[in-house]
Amino acid sequence: xxxxxxxxxxxxxxxINARQQADILVIAREGDDDSAAEQQDVQNIDNDxxxxxxxxxxxxxxxxxxxxxxxGVGFALQTWLGDNQIIRAALMAVxxxxxxEFVTRQFRMKLSSTVxxxxxxxxxxxxxxxxxxxxxxxxxxxxxxxxxxxxxxTIGSYGSAFFGGIALISILxxxxxxxxxxxxxxxxxxxxxxxxWTFLYFYDGVTDGRVQLPTVEQVPLILERALMMxxxxxxxxxxxxVYFDLRDRERSTVWSDCAFWLHxxxxxxxxxxxxxxxxxxxxxxxxxxxxxxxxxxLGLLISAFVYVALAIxxxxxxxxxxxxxxxxxxxxxxxxxxxxxxxxxxxxxxxVIGLLVIMFGAGWQRIRALIVRPTLPTSLINKLPPIRV
Length: 389
Description:
This protein is mainly α. The protein has helices at residues 4-12, 18-29, 36-43, 57-81, 85-107, 110-136, 139-143, 152-177, 182-208, 219-226, 228-246, 254-279, 292-312, 315-335, 345-375, 378-381.
């Protein structure tokens, strides 16, 4: 008997697409009067951004088993091996890889595979971190911070080995198991690599005399210019995610899931720098109350993110964006003085965000059709994810 799991496997292998899967399920249930509500749910499958993070009750059950298994193994290894952290981490990583050969390769359990992938990556990163910590004897810096200046000849190579190692491990794990969250790990590690060398470049400029130490008045300007690095990294990660989306318009392959995680990573990298650059706010030093001009710029910035999210059909880009602005508004209202009068500008922003979330949750595809379809050329719309109304 044909089951939904068979159809999901057919979608994963590229035999059919997600829309065809939904149509087949609708046909299979047309004769059952008692499943009318369920038919409506199936017809609406393509109206939502399918995260494919959990494979079902059995996936959750196995995930709990994995957490219990490795918790027990961790306590046992700590008892047997004591303080030998590298050996313990290596054994845990090897065991997680072996379990992934069964859970991920054989049964493609989504949540369990994600937990195993993150665990394997965490233990391998711990091995690299512990090795670098012990090799450079970083514990001495806590007692004598001046020793940090003597690490410059080696910090670049060891830092590159750390971030590059995590990226290579993530690529290897993805090549073997096709776990989408590894794309986020690759993006984060490469972003860390870029931050490291940007810092070392300016540090070398100061020590060589090419760059003067900033005065207190110049600190805000330096911080503002420093925002260019996360902004550039966010643009690169976002463009990579859009590329994956364009090569999988039907959202039926692992590349679509990779794009989801890349959008989650790119959103904070884009939002924070653009917020400060567009509104002139100094979040680092605590000034976050925007005036009228800054509030207008903030509203335009939110509108731009909303429009892009609608165009590429990615709420995973929009949710962190709204969460950022919402948390910023909450922070401002908590820090506001008791004698302030009138409605704070960011309170209005919070109201708008709340309405947007409810409205988008109720009719995402209809809003896409109303906003995106009339404003973009047909040639571009045909390359974007289909508008399903």
